[in-house]
Amino acid sequence: MTMGTSGPTASRGAGIPACHGGIATEGLSIRAGAFSLSGLSFEIPQGEYAVLMGRTGSGKTTILEAICGLRRVTAGRIRLAGRDVTNLRPADRGIGYVPQDRALFKTMTVREHLAFSLAVRKCNDGLTARRVGELAAWLGLESLLERRPEGLSGGEAQRVALGRALASHPVLLLLDEPLSALDDQTREETYALLRTVRRQTGVTVLHVTHSRSEFEALGTRLLLLENGSVREGKLNT
Amino acid sequence: MSTQPLPRASPPASEPEAGAAPARVRMRSDWPFFACLSILGGVYIVLIIALLLADASFTSPGHLWSALASPEIRYAIKLSLISCTITALLSLWVAVPLGYLLSRCDFPGRNLVDTVLDIPIVLPPLVIGLSLLILFQTRLGRLVESVVPVTFAIPSVILAQFSVACAFAVRTMRVSFDQLSPRSEQVALTLGCSRAQAFWLVAVPEARRGVLTAATLSWARALGEFGPILVFSGATRMRTEVLPTTVFLELSVGNIEAAVAVSLLMVAAALLVLLTLRFFGSETFFGKGIQP
Lengths: 237, 292
Known about the structure:
CATH superfamily of chain B: MetI-like
Number of domains of chain B: 1
Oligomer: heterodimer
Distance between the termini of chain A: 8 Å
Shape of chain B: globular
Distance between the termini of chain B: 54 Å
Largest sheet of chain B: none
């Protein structure tokens, strides 16, 4: 597999890089208790599948939380699909987020998960039902629609979390170690599913992991988080 | 690279020599451990059952019927059930938001708020009653009294119960929210929710067992409340008399049979409510969804 070559590398220039549909950060500083990251600049062009790699505890999840709007940014800007989202609420950013533990809603069925973001945005029932049916068929969840999270396997729960995040057509999909704690067969199935997601939706993906094999299987762009800064990486084959 | 075989590990001292008769392997049993736990815990269970049996042996169905036939006791039962239910609902109304704030938000003075919440728990109930009485003698208290009579009236019963029971409900709700990961609410925020929507649609439903436990605890606590009610509401028959007041009044005139009968009625009412709430809090009621 080769690196994607269409976009510029991690940049540190003046101003926010032009970003048509993708995501760009410029001089991002984040503080999480005693831990902090500063001056993070990187860009992911639209439709790319970027894999952010770094050691455990290096701050990969913190970066995802900042992009989502769940963690306050102390300096810098985030531009998403051509607009500055740095100070927007998480709800207004148009980002689908799948955390490492999936964080499914314990009291809701699979159907309610898939419909959640549409119901919150007050979409009409017909549209919601159509989208739920579409996602369920696509993700192989049709027979599981009335189940609650405790009745799902790891792979099924992952598909539900993915469907929930994709339901309202986000411009950016953030995946935090989506393949951890999956067995080999489920991992291969999830690889195939994630490739299909990217191909069919054209969504820009930022996938956080510390596994190089996940980049080799899925990524078109490698970002390395080392010594508190993000740089574009190269695949050594 | 060395190809020498690894030295054979020497057998443990207890391993028998080849050809020797096998030594009896001593099986260590866990039963003494569990027996100790059972004895220590069992003593308390036996004490509770002994108390109830002693009460039951001291009364008869006739005493119970005559207690139930008394209009004063019927009034006390009605007032107890209504005031405890209102207290439980008011406690939840305060405990759910306050427990959530204490669990999820890091605001200035949080530790102080946390400490203040312990005051009703550690203060003697009589002191709570006295403090309420004094509070309603202040200018603010008299202003309230001019609109709604509180002291020595039915609202004072509810306020006295609420002052103590709510602290227990808040503690329960705080622990419930602490045990829930905030991640689900964070995901809900990214899915289009405001903080209020994430609270109502995700956090509160996930904390439903905590809500039921808080309701149960505050109801039960309110049913047993006596000290603050005696001081703040008085013990006026057919007016501010709740079941603990009845027990006190019957004891004070030497009518022990009636006091015991009312005590057993309280036990029966408490058991009924606790078992009902436990059923509604069970998986049977909430359902577990379809299992694979």
